[in-house]
Amino acid sequence: MSATAEAQSPQQTGNKKKKRKGVLIGLMVIFVLLGIAWLVYWFLVLRHYQETDDAYVAGNQVQVMAQVSGSVNKVWFDDTDFVKKGDVLVSLDKTDAEQAFEKAQTALAPSVRQTHQLMINGKQYQASIKLQQTALEQAETDLKRREPLGASNLIGREELQHSRDAVATAKAQLDVAEQQYNANQAMILKTSLENQPAVKQSAAELRDAWLALQRTDIRSPMEGYVSRRSVQVGSQIDTSTPLMAIVPATHLWVDANFKETQLAGVRIGQPATVVADIYGDDVVYHGKVVGLDMGTGSAFSLLPAQNATGNWIKVVQRLPVRIELEQQDIAQHPLRIGLSTLVKIDTSVADGSALATSVRQQAAYSSNALAIDLTPVNQLITDIVRANAG
Fold first, then answer.
1. What residues form DSSP beta bridges with 275?
2. How confident is the model at residue 2 (pLDDT cuts 50, 70, 90)?
3. What CATH number does the domain containing 172 carry?
4. Is residue 328 part of a domain?
5. Which of 15, 215, 238, 350 has the greatest CB tally within 10 Å of its CB?
């Protein structure tokens, strides 16, 4: 039995070696096939994608400032509060503005009356001209009657000289009346009362005072969320004092900082996917490339690098690429400015351009929330002019 066992042992050992060799060869073949498959997949798919995790959510931060100076009475909203376009954010003390408005109203009335008086004086000066013309005609008639008598020595020379002096005086008085009329016409120039310069100036001052009164209520220029509120009740603010910021939640984008070695195939319009760390891989945002910045971060820094001075070490630069996100994705999963993201761009379609070639035909951003309708104050001005026009 021992001899038979010893005879079978080398045979079993040889079989094990063959099996091990077969397994190793099989594993090697599998790894080679996997490597080839990965290379094919990289060549056909992966090489067309550029990815970076140096990407952050960006958006508009609308800085709210006052248009007039004043003391803060009320702060209507706080950080994280939602506001709509046109909502009053801060109210200033209205006492000074109301006083200025009353003063402007009071100043408009005498301006209208004085200007109306100038227009009436024109008719008075015309009547004065006619009166002086009549006096001149009478003086000239008297002189014509006295000249033959003076030539015949029927009247004294002194009386004849008085007649000549009367004609000269009448001419001078007529000239004075005409100049007064011309001066008055230069002031009014056939212009209607409401369009007279003095009246328009007083009306403009009244509008300014009314606008200043309206602007004591500081309104939100757009819909969004309050952030970085710094204004406090009782503070004295002016037109350069930052009060708070309004951050819209609907128009956000991602600034992806790609290495310069990744940008050769990146073009405007290429699709992109974004994964935000706040939601993880379960939420994927879709977007597209809308532009590449015109400079790297180091080029626009406060102290740009001076590589021509001293030793130089090459550092791969990064260029911001702007990714516009689909609004429906943002509506379903809201983002915040500054959140970290992972961006992947599909560069398989390279038909687009690297730089924008079209010019915007409309404003990129606009808001009419701060526009004030002047209809009420214009009606007030019309009423004051009519009441004081006589």
1. 342
2. low
3. 1.20.58
4. no
5. 215
Q: Based on the domain organization, do 148 and 189 belong to the same domain?
A: yes
Residues 91 and 122 occupy one common structural domain: no
How far is it, in rounded angstroms, from Cα 216 to Cα 376? 17
Sort strands 271-276 and 49-59 into parallel, antiparallel or unpaired.
unpaired
CB distance 254 to 264 below 8 Å: no
Say if residue 227 is in the same domain as residue 175: no
Whether residue 110 contacts residue 208, with contact meaning beta carbons closer than 8 Å, is answered with no
Per-residue pLDDT of 293-346, as tens digits, reads: 998 888 888 777 777 777 778 888 999 999 999 999 999 999 999 999 999 999
Q: Are 260 and 321 in contact (CB under 8 A)?
A: no
Tell me, yes or no, whether 199 and 139 share the same domain.
Answer: yes
Dump pLDDT digits (tens) for 153-206. 666 677 767 777 777 887 888 787 777 777 766 666 677 778 888 888 999 999
56 found inside a domain:
no
> Cα-flanking dihedrals φ and ψ of residue 90, to 5°?
-140, 140
Q: Which domain range does residue 159 map to?
A: 97-212
For residues 66 and 88, give the distance between their C-alpha atoms in angstroms, rounded to a whole number.
12
Please state, in angstroms and rounded to a whole number, the distance separating the CA atoms of residues 8 and 32.
36
Q: Residue type for 368, please?
A: N
| CATH number for the domain harbouring residue 87 | 2.40.50.100
The answer to whether the beta carbons of residues 377 and 210 sit under 8 Å apart is: yes
Q: Using alpha carbons, select from 144, 126, 136, 130 the residue that is nearest to residue 167.
A: 136
pTM of the model: 0.74
Verify that 179 and 240 share a domain, yes or no.
no
Contact of 32 with 224, CB cutoff 8 Å: no
